[in-house]
Amino acid sequence: MTSKEQKWDAQHYDGKMGFVAKLGAGVLELLDARPEERVLDLGCGTGALTNELASRGAQVEGIDLSEEMIEAAKANYPHIPFAVEDAHSYRADAPFDAVFSNAALHWMRQPERVIEAVAANLRPGGRFAAEFGGADNVSAIVSAIGGVLEERFGIDADSRNPWYYPTIGEYASLLERQGFRVLSAEHFDRPTPLPEGDRGLRNWLDTFAGIFFAGLTESEREEAYREIEERARPKLYRDGCWYGDYRRLRILAVLKTPRARSHSARSEV
Ligand code: BEZ
Fold first, then answer.
1. Nearest atom in ligand 1 to 106's CA
2. From atom 6 of ligand 1, which residue's Cα is the shortest distance away?
3. Which of 57, 87, 116, 178 has the most crowded CB, counting CB atoms within 10 A?
């Protein structure tokens, strides 16, 4: 949940987009944090899943680039350490047993640096469990935004797109290059109901997609939203509800020990 250009409203996020944390249940299970393990939550947002990890007995810390999110996380869960940090460059004082991340990595546009930081913050044998948008995530929404901005306002939406949605192959290769062994990787569809009936898609645009509409007046934005809804409706609206065409990447990887790394380097020669 981190991007410098993206403005976050923590209250709006928790109130209208609370489903984001609820959908993190699968990756929590995948991590299977054990009591007393030291876990870093990367892109922790307002801290709901960090707290879930803490309630399972983990010694957890949360970081996020958004000051608003971290302020809310600290207020929500004062017993957990949270800090404003950039996951691209973060180095903790002591290594973690595991790094966890839900719905955050697609905001981080330099994945090599993020993975390098994850590796630097893990002990050898430590786990990295993450879920985020994979290739073609929200493609019907992105295509409707792109069409409307281009045709009505002459804006090149691609140049404003803040998201990184890799395939399994791309992301697994990056992990392997930085010394991880990928234990599992899934890329699956998860059509996601957007709360508040007819307002569902515009709430989502307000919360997550503001950067695309920078520079438009209020009435231009309203016009853009209406046209985006029109274009996206056949694919994303049914029975009074909007659905985000989410397509997730869920991975579990383990940081190889230096010995295992040198063996695999030799076997590649
Ligand atoms: C996602 O969770 O897939 C997502 C959330 C906000 C913006 C883009 C993607």
1. 9
2. 208
3. 87
